[in-house]
């Protein structure tokens, strides 16, 4: 199982920026209040539509876990030798990049005394390294045990959305890109995070801005997404663990070349030489 990972994340600023840069209509006419369910449905107009979100998770899982069955990955955990310690769960939370620590802290907040709570001191100490100190020999066993708990699965969903999915979709909508563009952002932030390093999501986007403009700034959507993917490939090639760019070249580029900006099924792609299809 080949599972390339991302760098440390710090995405709060990204979400804030997306909200700050979102267009605001002037002199809007007040509308009658809508029911909460209607508001949720209206807001889900891109990758946050439940069906599209499931597609996104399946495509990412094809690259991260060589499987379309993303819901089988809650229990997944291993050290893949990429310098990030243990990689685990539905989005590849890493003991060395802080997001696994955040996840276990959140899980312990909603369910004190859970089977992973005792590892919090060790997770704090190994953050930023590939060390297993204080985690071995039973952490992997206890992770799999925790994955049988619905609250832990909900915690993984919560942290995936908070740290990766919602910021990516928010920035995508702010930039005026559709469902495919929002997915391209999501896959990038999953792998690279949004820290201050040159290969982070925000700096991939900054690099793309030197070549093209997003639709919200008057640019062509296809040209912008090609520029973003060019910058993404550059970032991937800066690190050996990410140097196979097939998740861009034979997946995202394929959708873009076909003009499938809505990420509509059927979808066919390849990752690391393996073929996948949805629909």
Task: Kindly describe this structure.
A hairpin with a 4-residue loop joins strand 2 (86-88) and strand 3 (93-94). The protein has 279 residues and is mainly alpha-helical. The longest helix has 26 residues, at 150-175. Helix 8 runs parallel beside helix 10 (221-236) and helix 10 (221-236) runs antiparallel to helix 11. It contains eleven helices and five strands, in the order H-H-H-E-E-E-H-H-H-H-H-H-H-H-E-E. It is globular and about 50 Å long. The chain has helices spanning 12-21, 36-43, 50-64, 99-110, 120-126, 139-146, 150-175, 179-192, 201-209, 221-236, 246-257; strands at 77-79, 86-88, 93-94, 267-271, 274-278. The strands form two sheets. A three-stranded antiparallel beta sheet has the order 1-2-3, covered by helices on one side. The chain has a two-stranded antiparallel ribbon with strand order 4-5. The chain starts with 11 loop residues before the first helix and ends with a strand. It is an enzyme of class 3 (hydrolase). Aids in the defense against invading fungal pathogens by degrading their cell wall chitosan. Belongs to the glycosyl hydrolase 46 family. Residues 1-28 form the signal peptide. It is found in: Secreted.
Bin the helical content: 40-55%
What amount of the residues lies in strands? Answer: 5-15%
- N-to-C order of helices and strands: HHHEEEHHHHHHHHEE
Overall geometric form: globular
As residue ranges, the low-confidence spans are 1-42
Quaternary status: single chain
Q: Helix tally?
A: 11
Query: How are the strands of the largest sheet arranged?
Result: 1-2-3
Function: Aids in the defense against invading fungal pathogens by degrading their cell wall chitosan.
Organism: Streptomyces katrae
Protein name: Chitosanase
Pfam families: Glyco_hydro_46
